[in-house]
Amino acid sequence: MKKRLLGTASLALALGLGSAALAEGYKIGISNTVQGNGWREEMICAMKAEALASGKVDSLNIAHRNTDAAGQLEDIRNLIQAGVNAIVVNPTNADGINAAIKEATDKGIVVVAVDQAVTEPSAYILSNNQEEYAYIGAKWLFEQMGGKGAVVYMRGAAGAGADNDRDKGFKRAMAEYPDITIAQEVFTGWQQDQGKQQINDIIAAGVPFQGVWTSGIDNVIVDAFTEAGAPLVPIVGADNAGFVSQLSSVEGLKGAAVTNPGSVGGAGVALAIQILDGKVPAEKTVLVDPVLWDNTTEEGKAQIAAAQNPNLSPEWPVSVSIPGWTTYTMDQIIACKGPGE
Amino acid sequence: MTRFLSKNSRTVGLAALLALLLVATKLIQPDFGASGLESLARAVLPFAFATVGMTIVVIAGGIDLSMAAMMAVASVTAAVLMEGASDGQAAIAVLGVLVLGLVMGAINGTLIVLTRVPDIVVTLAMLFVWQGVALLILNAPGGGAAPWLRDLVVGGVVLPGLPTALTEWLPKAVLFLVIAVALIWVPIRRSRLGLMLYAIGSDQLAAFRSGIPVGLTRIVAYALAGLFAALGGLSVTMGTGIGEPIPGPYLMASVAAVVLGGVVLGGGRGGIVGPVLAVFILRLVRMDLTLLSVDPNVTAIIEGTITVAVVMFGGLLAVRGMQK
What we know:
Chain A is about 45% helix and about 20% strand. Chain A is an alpha/beta fold. In chain A, strands 2-1-3-4-5-11 form a six-stranded parallel β-sheet, sandwiched between helices. In chain A, strands 7-6-8-9-10-12 form a six-stranded mixed β-sheet, with helices on both faces. By secondary structure, chain B is an all-alpha fold.
């Protein structure tokens, strides 16, 4: 028994020495708690690609699994033990992982929370600007509707931080267009089947409306219109591959995709590297502003055409990079390889 | 001494494996020390309580699939009650949550005994019930935890009268675990109740004919599992400072640790120490894989493989022991 155990130990030792050999550039840790979701997988690949493209990162320690806040505390503490210089984290909860973040920053580790905010003041936050996301989409929609009429307001999940922020942006746009009213307000829970059922009910009920704003559950809404043979109204969605391809293929559809890039993960790695290089941003919170691609202008059509890539996973948002932040190429993010892989 | 070793070969083997893994961790990461042990202990805590609870029902010949869901109920209840509460109120809330755990477990056990539906079916159904209850109490992560409670498991042990350096390396979380388990389990194990739990797990009919109240003993086993689930849920809230209504990955992990720890799934054989050591081993493997920056999609495969390998190895030892 002893021999076998010794064998295991020496194997572990060999593995360990192999990876801990040289240390020149930065060592960055990553913690994510949702595995097997297109948006999150794109985020991880963006992190790997940015670390590789920067040329300043030697190795990534990635803790990427389905777990809760307690599990993320464990992962962050393990990353601290691994001696990383920075940790980029997509927090499972705004409050639940503060203890481990504080332990990391106390040890001089740079912590960047991406996608969602944390309340620990020593962490940097790099997130998509969700309020702006809703505002520019709604504004475009209200313009298309001629500034008057009723809109179907299909929100995300009740109580989610991103949904609350988006609601603020939507209401801000509403305030600018006083003749716009809400025909129906529903929570899709960001579930495709639920959203489709809801729009089917609304179409069947004959409620008059002149536009649909969605919080990213978009392609099934277009499907519902075409399947029911109902006249299309302008629709706003996110930059999910399915909806973006509908924008260029569905006859008579006027629509716009607002970007909500999973590549914010890559931007988070870029920010962490900047801070390690000594370029500390003035604000602890950095918001990435979304971009709107509509299929009613030539410019928008060109952007939609450029964004489509048959090599991209259909589950991924098509905005695979964030101008001004990420430096990798399309091929690098699709390859999904980090330094040393 | 040899008798002790051969009787507890599984536990001794697990302890040796844990020691070797600690040495390997130190070799992988030369900085690994007290703070690493402390991180490990805090990560272990909720898993260990879930495992102890699961071990007790498995020894008594059952299984409780609602373990993680009961932890979620305990966690959100504690977090809701403690938000903005004074220290004294928080202490009452903790006691209340422990009682709640006992009650949830007793409900599971009573349903099993009364309906005569197999344990696995009842507790699977109760998994959904407790999940729903947790969401009803708190539909999104939130609430709070009393600072004194959170401090209970942070840092190393400092005992008055002893030099700090002597005790500091021992994480408070380990002490918390040992005291909680010892206070509840040791008196039971040494009493008639402990014998009865093993007896009904071994052979229900024989136990019945020996005059053991089988139904009642089963209910007690589930109630104890509920109590440890409450401790597990509390330790989640102590670690995060919030309550989480969605159950964490504690069910499968606890079953794995029970098996790894040498408890026979049919019941009647095994102890508490083995499964708890197994929890430490599984968490340490996770830490080592992170330290080695192994591809995250491969880590789960490795964790599973290690479990199977150790269980098979243990089985081999058991067979050899029998041949002697």
